[in-house]
Amino acid sequence: MSEPKFLSLDIAGIEAEAGAPAPDRLISGDPQFRSWNVEERDGGLYAGIWESTPGKWRIAYDEWEFCHILSGVSVITEEGGEARTVRAGDSFVLRPGFKGSWEVLETTRKEYVIRL
């Protein structure tokens, strides 16, 4: 039987992977991550839900990522660019080469699609 072609980002029954920023990227706080990877495909395609508690860390993207904020408030600042506040309902793309910081002001949960 072939796998279904429709996949809901339903995390029920999926165990979260725990994480945190690498110590050399941490700027402030003690952010703790949880990720529920719902889809993983050969060639580097991932989709799921990610959540972080408050804190701030440096980010550097080699991959392309679409994000849709489900809850919380974060500030994403590009090196040499402006700070952007994102909250529930906001969608955006971080392109390869993006460098800056991610600061979670209120625990933030997002849906993501990553392409390596």
Verbal overview:
This protein is mainly beta. The protein has a single domain, classed as Jelly Rolls, CATH 2.60.120. The protein has no helices and 9 strands. The chain has strands spanning 17-19, 26-29, 33-41, 45-52, 55-60, 64-78, 83-87, 91-94, 99-115. Strands 1, 2, 3, 4, 5, 6, 7, 8 and 9 form a 9-stranded antiparallel β-sheet that branches. A hairpin with a 3-residue loop joins β3 (33-41) and β4. The protein is globular and about 50 Å long. The protein starts with 16 loop residues before the first strand and ends with a strand. The mean pLDDT is 97. Pfam families: Cupin_3 (PF05899). This is Cupin superfamily protein. Residues 40-112 form the (S)-ureidoglycine aminohydrolase cupin domain.
Summarize the structure.
About 0% of the residues lie in helices and about 60% in strands. It is mainly β and about 120 residues long.
Keywords:
about 60% strand; 9 strands; nine-stranded antiparallel β-sheet; about 120 residues; Jelly Rolls; mainly beta; single chain; globular
> Residue share in helices?
under 10%
Backbone structural class: mainly beta
Distance between the termini: 29 Å
Mean pLDDT: 97
Given the C-alpha coordinates, what overall shape results?
globular
Q: What's the CATH architecture?
A: Sandwich
CATH class: Mainly Beta
Biggest sheet layout: 9 strands, antiparallel
